[in-house]
Specification:
Layout lengths: L1 H49 L20 H9 L2 H32 L5 H10 L5 H14 L6 H5 L6 H12 L3 H9 L4 H12 L1 H16 L3 H6 L8 H11 L4 H33 L3
InterPro entries: MetI-like, MetI-like_sf
Membrane topology: Multi-pass membrane protein
Main location: membrane
Length: 289
Amino acid sequence: MASDALTTRAHTTATAAGRRRLLSARSGLTVLAVVLSLISLFPVVWMVTSSFKTRATVTDGRLIPRDFTFQNFVYVFTEVPFGRYLWNSFFISTVITVAALFFHSMAAYALARLRFPGREKLFGAIFATLLVTAPVVLIPLFLVARELGLLDSYAGLIIPAIFNAFGIFLLRQFYLGLPKELEEAAVIDGCGHWRVYWNIVLPMSRPILSALAIFFFLANWNAFVWPLVATSDQDLTVVQLGISSFQTQYTSNWNYILAAATVAALPMLVLFFVFQRRIVESIKTSGLK
């Protein structure tokens, strides 16, 4: 009896020690996550608060403004056509996002479900483009756009940005995880590939399409290099180029520059925080098969 009691006590002690170690490790990871989050958020918070400072106090190193003012935002929208820049970015990003989701979903469905010669090689070639950085193809892309007469036009800003191998890859992995029984039942009922894709696959793809829509919109909202190369017309200036030209014109007026950057960043921050749960869930359910 005594030996059984000692064994039970030892087991209880070991279990309690294991729980304490687990709790300690979890607490440490939580503290680390909080610290990293604060470090990541600090530049954004500093940008927002500094946008309300005056020119004399914008570089004073204080997080909270001493002289709170809205004149920076008034100046941004009255001295430059910043509203036009925002509209250009919104229009271009929206069109690219819608077109990319449509074509990417069709390509991904074909690569995941249809059987045709060279399918795996084609997917490998598409996936390999992820290893090619944008500066490598910048000059060839510019030459092609010039020959096609796409420079200084919305088409020149939209068409080259539609293709994205990451979107096709993520959608293909998602489609591989869908149950084939639904598609087979639809085929037995007389549906072709197009009806299966449109009526069954697309409605089931809403979570992953929502996440990709946010990714594509954010990427094109923040686009800088290609719009800089492809356009010289002021009416086609996007918001990031607008901030850059604003900085060139007002090199020392950081209060105006930070106000413009805040206006450009806040809509995207709101969009991300509203849909961040859907983004995480869609990536988790997409799998990497």
